[in-house]
Amino acid sequence: MVSLPHPTTPAGRDGLAALLARPEKAVVALDFDGTLAEIVPDPEQARAHPGAVPALAALAPRIASIAVVTGRPAGVAVRYGGFAGVPGLEHLVVLGHYGAERWDAVTGTVQAAPPHPGVAAVRAELPGFLARVGAWPGTWIEEKGRAVAVHTRRASDPQGAFEALKGPLGDLAARHGLVLEPGRMVLELRPPGMDKGVALAEYVREVGAGSVLYAGDDLGDLPAYAAVEKLRSDGTPGLLVCSGSAEVTEVSDRADLSVPGPAAVVRFLADLAEAVREAG
């Protein structure tokens, strides 16, 4: 019989118990980078852990739904995750750009809201802006379609560059009607009202979930954590999983269960699929 790790909080234990008792009513929602895929210096090289798709395909037919909730464009997450055309994942949903885009495996198409004009303005201004404020060597810009991000991981002092740029980039974002979202050595400028909590809460309501599991690793996942906490206060059990990182302790401090990175997340998902099968 498979043995699952034990949540450290009563609410987390209730959430896991509810998922196992009625898996057909459960939504399992997952961040991509840092949760299903390792963080790498070049985000374009990120790929889902080799065991992620098999684990998800084993779990998905036994629960209500699996949703990947990511700041990436939905199509990029599908491509880097290898989610398209996989038997067992016919009803997987990817909520990209914090819910502004949605890819459904059943149709293979992406639905998207109109882009915010501030993103195009920031995109045009950002290279010159960084030159004026004295961007650190190794800092680089990532084009994300509906958002734009400045990465400091390759800088000689990643944390120093991150702290030095956070204020100026926050001012730039505000000037164009955007918000600044700090992450793991990345500062993302994106439209307001786009966050993983809004996306997750709307999807859980759509599905009519009886329980929800959310796994994430970064500051951008905290709104999703808050959404699960709100659902729990309203009577829907939930489990918060942290894909462990020494870089971001705010997530592990809020989690019911912490595992050490994407490989461990994948093992947990595979074990969860087996536990659901055994319970049935």
Distance between the termini: 13 Å
The geometry reads as: globular
**Beta-strand percentage?**
15-25%
What share of the residues lie within helices?
25-40%
User: What structural class is derived from the secondary structure elements?
Assistant: alpha/beta
Number of helices: 9
Helix/strand order: HEHEHEEEHEEHEEHEHEHEH
Profile the largest sheet. Answer: 8 strands, mixed
Which runs of at least 5 residues are low in confidence (pLDDT < 50)? none
Spatial strand sequence of the major β-sheet: 5-4-3-2-1-10-11-12
Strand tally:
12
Properties at a glance:
alpha/beta, eight-stranded mixed beta sheet, globular, 12 strands, four-stranded antiparallel beta sheet, 280 residues, 9 helices
Structure explained in plain terms:
This protein has 280 residues and is of the alpha/beta class. The protein contains 9 helices and 12 strands. An 8-stranded mixed sheet has the order 5-4-3-2-1-10-11-12, sandwiched between helices. A hairpin with a 4-residue loop joins strand 6 and strand 7. The longest helix has 18 residues. It is globular and about 60 Å long. The two termini are 13 Å apart.
Topology:
Elements: H1 10-21, E1 26-30, H2 52-59, E2 65-69, H3 74-81, E3 93-96, E4 101-104, E5 109-112, H4 117-133, E6 140-143, E7 148-151, H5 158-175, E8 179-182, E9 186-190, H6 196-207, E10 211-216, H7 222-233, E11 238-243, H8 249-254, E12 257-259, H9 262-279
Parallel strand pairs: 1-2, 1-10, 2-3, 10-11, 11-12
Antiparallel strand pairs: 3-4, 4-5, 6-7, 7-9, 8-9
Helix pairs in contact: 2-9, 6-7
